[in-house]
Write a structure and sequence with these properties.
By secondary structure, the chain is an alpha+beta fold. The chain contains 3 helices and 7 strands; from the N terminus they run E-E-E-E-E-H-H-E-E-H. Strands 1, 2, 3, 4, 5, 6 and 7 form a 7-stranded antiparallel beta sheet that branches. Strand 6 and strand 7 form a beta hairpin.
Length: about 200
């Protein structure tokens, strides 16, 4: 006897990875680790200190729309490593990209407004931030492949506006207040059998 539920040789492997290079709008949730160092500006309990002495933000990035909506990607944002400055520099670079992406700023923009938009009052300002991410594939502690976020996409990228859901615009502008909705008048058309009312 051979059938779909007897022979699984042609079943797809369930790696469940989002393809490397995919652009997606994501929302960052910082999973608090309870580690503070006010001299570094790390307050509010957002930072986590690992067993090696490394300090990081434990990021949970949720895809907000599109094909992979509601998928979660877990990535650490480096703040400090006893091995040297590289991990912290990568973390700072990622946060700069996130701020540029979320606030609609070109990475090349050095105007006072752009510089102000790249400053935060604390990690609470990053918790809940939405931006366009380039999804990557890395490996976990067990050597298994997993999705990661190592870079944000800024308005300089040709697909930024489409992924972010904005008309192409440059410069950070606060969201406009939505205009009040006007009632839409339905045309007096004869109903077409089998079509829903909204499609008439």
């Amino acid at each position: 006897m051979s059938g779909l539920w007897n022979d699984f040789n042609d079943a797809q492997s369930n790696t469940n990875l989002i393809p490397k290079g995919t652009l997606a709008k994501v929302r960052l949730t910082i999973r608090p680790g309870g580690f503070d160092d006010p001299s570094q500006g790390w307050t509010g309990g957002y930072a986590t200190r690992g067993s090696t002495g490394a300090v990081y933000l434990n990021g949970e990035f949720t895809v907000t729309e599109g094909q992979y909506a509601r998928r979660k990607i877990f990535t650490l944002i480096g703040l400090y490593s006893p091995k040297g400055p590289d991990w912290a520099n990568m973390g700072r670079s990622l946060v700069r990209g996130m701020l540029n992406s979320a606030r609609g700023i070109s990475d090349k923009d050095q105007s006072p407004q752009a510089q102000a938009a790249r400053r935060i009052g604390g990690f609470a300002d990053l918790d809940g931030i939405e931006f366009v991410a380039r999804i990557d594939v890395g490996s976990d502690a067990m050597g298994e492949e997993k999705n990661e976020i190592r870079a944000a996409v800024t308005p300089d990228h040709r697909d930024y506006a489409q992924v972010m859901g904005l008309a192409a615009q440059h410069g950070y502008q606060p969201p406009a207040q939505p205009a009040p909705l006007k009632p839409v008048q339905q045309p007096a058309a004869s109903p077409v059998p089998g079509r829903p009312a909204w499609a008439q």
